[in-house]
Amino acid sequence: MAKIRNLYSSKFIIISTVFWVIINLLSVYFLDEEISRWFRVASSLYFVIWSFSFGIFKSKMDYVLVSYLICDISLVYYELQVFNFITFLARSLIFSLLIFIVFPKIRSVKFRLFELILGIAVVAINIYLLFELLAMVPEAFIYDYFYPVYLALTLLTILLVGVAFTYNNIFSNKRSFYFLLAALFLAFSDFNFFIAIYLDVPVFYYPDRFFHILALGLLLLFWIKPIEDSNNNNLEQREV
Q1: With the C-alpha atoms ordered 206, 94, 157, 92, is the resulting torsion angle positive or negative?
Q2: Closest C-alpha to 162, from 202, 201, 111
Q3: Beta-carbon neighbour count of residue 154 at 10 Å?
Q4: Which of 193, 227, 224, 222 is nearest to 208 (CA)?
Q5: How far is 9 from 15, CA to CA, in rounded Å?
């Protein structure tokens, strides 16, 4: 039991996350980008196996982890249209699941008029920037369903970040802060990947990979926190 508790702890998650961040950054530096993407897959697979060792699909976060894995596998062949499409779908599924996990905790929140106006303004600015970035995508990457899936993912990103900020403002604890950082880092990862692949600036693969794996680790810390705070570390107490 002690060994299980050590394995199922924030310390284990932090050490594992740091390890995979370093490995992935080294792979980007020493290997071709296409080959280094397999290390991204390895990091996701590692955490899926870790989670499944305590039960397969016994929590909502398991579905997030599997979506992470699907996204990373399809991203290996991102330049092919069908895998490009799958990557967008899997990434959108990750964001949708995270919103689904947190939204019940904030749906009764009432916003002041100023907050609503500010929120609408921020969304409007982001939508404008969305179309500006979309215009930069080379024609070689455009296919029939590219625009709908790209727009859907970007809107889900905006919604996820908004939900994360609201969730953190309500609870203001470590767990909500982990979730907020994870949401922001997922958005940062996508933005850097966009610059790296569509604008052909390879150096941005480094922050992309860094934020992508760090976000995964933060989501797991968000997930594990209620169990660590309990007296008996019962694995069945997983809230999500």
Answers
A1: positive
A2: 111
A3: 21
A4: 193
A5: 10
Q: How far apart are CA 45 and CA 49, in angstroms?
A: 6
Contact 210, 17 (CB under 8 A): no
Q: In terms of Cα–Cα distance, which of 13, 44, 169 is closest to 102?
A: 169
The C-alpha atoms of residue 55 and residue 235 are separated, in whole angstroms, by 10
Residue 140 CB contacts under 8 Å (≥ 6 apart), including other chains: none
SS (H, E, C) 14-51: HHHHHHHHHHHHHHHHHCCHHHHHHHHHHHHHHHHHHH
| CA distances for 197 relative to 33, 43, 98, angstroms | 10, 21, 26
Q: State the Cα angle at 31 between 26 and 35, rounded to 5°.
A: 110
Question: DSSP string covering 171-212, please?
Answer: H-SHHHHHHHHHHHHHHHHHHHHHHHHHTT-GGGHHHHHHHH
The phi and psi torsions of 108 (rounded to 5 degrees) equal -90, 5
Tens of pLDDT, residue by residue over 112-136, are 666 667 777 777 877 787 788 888 8
Residues whose CB is less than 8 angstroms from the CB of residue 134 and which lie 6 or more positions away in sequence, other chains included: 147, 150, 151
- Residue 132: the pLDDT is 84
Helices then strands, each counted (H, E), the chain:
9, 0
The pTM for the full model equals: 0.91
